[in-house]
Amino acid sequence: MDLFTREYTLVNSEMMSDYRIKPTSIVMYFEDCVATFLATKQVAAFDIIKKNLIWVISEYQFSIVGMLPFWSEKFQVEVWASEISGLRLYMEFRLKYRGNIFAQGDSTWAILDATTRHPVPIQSIITNITPIAEYINPTHKHSFEKSIGEPHLSTHTTNVNDIDFNFNKHINNRTYVNFFANSLPESFVHKDCTSVLVKFKQESFFGDVLTCKTYKTATDDVLTASIVNDKGAEVCHLRASFGPNQLQQTISEYDLGIRNYDFPSR
């Protein structure tokens, strides 16, 4: 069975003002770990593009469940395939800090023909990945709370540029979450994010103009958002929940132990 673990160090570009990991950075680290896992199986993006194929992620969800890592400290990411169907690979993930889980979730992946952008059967391509029947959530089918009220809470518009690209030459997955975060109404800016759900509808490319509209739901501290392009098509649907995270250490508490920290010498 294939459980893959990789260790990371939290760098300053991936931390918030309290020196702890950004929720949006959780996306980056789990996707990087999945990519590394696929590389060990010789089915990384640079492997399958030789056959005119590309990896895409269609959905992911994660929850923050523990104390977040502090700047310069190490943490671990675990990933494993829980299921392989005809057209989909389901990857679960956990992030651990000081031996405890601080974030976990699942994701859905597919392989597309690079020319037609149509999905292709996946089982004949990833023949050396053995699933582990362990699931973070009871189902891979996640639902969105219904948005309520008009007008929407906030609107944010941006142009897609070259720094938003990934190796498939479309906007990378993390950028959508950053875009959502930038569109949050002021009343949510200083709240802690506790979970995120993202479903991708179609690709976005250089020059596209994207607009994110954020809505209330019937559940307090849960927002949904729709990102549409300048042609009016929805490219991404998101949900996020917010609330106080009582497990976070204060900076002063951390400083009590940092005097003995073994910083690497130059």
Mean pLDDT: 86
Reading off the top of the CATH hierarchy, the class of the largest domain is best stated as: Alpha Beta
Low-pLDDT regions? none
> Can you tell me the overall shape?
globular
Q: Please bin the fraction of helical residues.
A: 10-25%
The percent range for strand residues is 35-45%
How many domains is the backbone divided into?
2
Question: What attributes does this structure have?
Answer:
266 residues, alpha+beta, Thiol Ester Dehydrase, Chain A, 2 domains, 5 helices, 11 strands, globular
Overview of this structure, please?
The chain is an alpha+beta fold. The chain folds into 2 domains: 142 residues, Thiol Ester Dehydrase, Chain A (Roll); 119 residues, Hotdog Thioesterase (Thiol Ester Dehydrase, Chain A). Helix 1 packs antiparallel against helix 3. Strands 1, 2, 3, 4, 5, 6, 7, 8, 9, 10 and 11 form an 11-stranded antiparallel β-sheet that branches. The model has no long low-confidence stretch (mean pLDDT 86). It is globular and about 50 Å long. It is built from 5 helices and 11 strands; from the N terminus they run E-H-H-E-E-E-E-E-E-H-H-E-E-E-E-H. It starts with a strand and ends in an 8-residue tail after the last helix.
